[in-house]
């Protein structure tokens, strides 16, 4: 079972690495990058911290989320366990923010499904995806 969780962790990390890279550059897919840029204009309008006076500029918002996804995805896939746990938490917060944003924008539930699935998989890894602690030799 540990191999399945390891495979899930690596695949999920690579998925976030890829989605972050698409946000940062138009080299992978110019159409998708252009779509992301237009979406983040809408996302910046409903940014959760806007009520507290923090309103991000859409281009900068896209870059920050892209870099966080790239770095956290890389660490989730290949980092040491402590950094995997930290990146899992950070990516979970990003997915919660994505779900919040999509719901506030009244997007169809089918649009919320990928973020919800990613959040569920991240939580599964957080709950069950760790190796059992070593047992002491002398009990």
Task: Name some characteristics of this structure.
139 residues; mainly alpha; 75% helix; 0% strand
Question: What features would you describe in this structure?
Answer:
About 20% of the residues are buried. Helix 1 packs antiparallel against helix 3, helix 1 packs across helix 5 and helix 3 packs antiparallel against helix 4. The chain is mainly alpha-helical. It is built from five helices and no strands. The protein is elongated, with a radius of gyration of 17 Å. It is about 75% helix and about 0% strand.
String of helices and strands: HHHHH
Largest sheet: none
Output the radius of gyration: 17 Å
Distance between the termini: 26 Å
Give the helix/strand class: mainly alpha
Low-pLDDT parts are none
Q: Please report the total strand number as a whole number.
A: 0
As a percent range, the share of strand residues is under 5%
Molecular shape = elongated
Mean pLDDT: 92
Helix content range of the residues, please?
over 70%
Please give the count of helices.
5
Produce a short descriptive summary.
This protein is mainly α and 139 residues long.
Secondary-structure blueprint:
Elements: H1 2-24, H2 30-45, H3 58-78, H4 81-104, H5 109-128
């Amino acid at each position: 079972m540990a191999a399945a969780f390891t495979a899930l962790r690596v695949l999920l990390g690579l998925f976030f690495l890829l989605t972050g890279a698409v946000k940062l550059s138009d080299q992978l897919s110019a159409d998708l990058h252009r779509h992301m840029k237009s979406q983040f204009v809408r996302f910046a309008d409903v940014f959760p911290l806007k009520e507290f006076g923090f309103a991000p500029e859409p281009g900068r918002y896209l870059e920050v989320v892209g870099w966080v996804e790239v770095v956290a995805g890389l660490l989730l896939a290949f980092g040491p366990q402590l950094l995997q746990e930290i990146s899992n938490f950070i990516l979970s917060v990003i997915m919660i923010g994505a779900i919040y944003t999509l719901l506030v924008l009244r997007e169809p539930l089918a649009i919320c499904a990928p973020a919800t699935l990613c959040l569920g998989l991240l939580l599964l890894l957080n709950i069950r995806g760790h190796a059992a602690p070593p047992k002491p030799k002398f009990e």
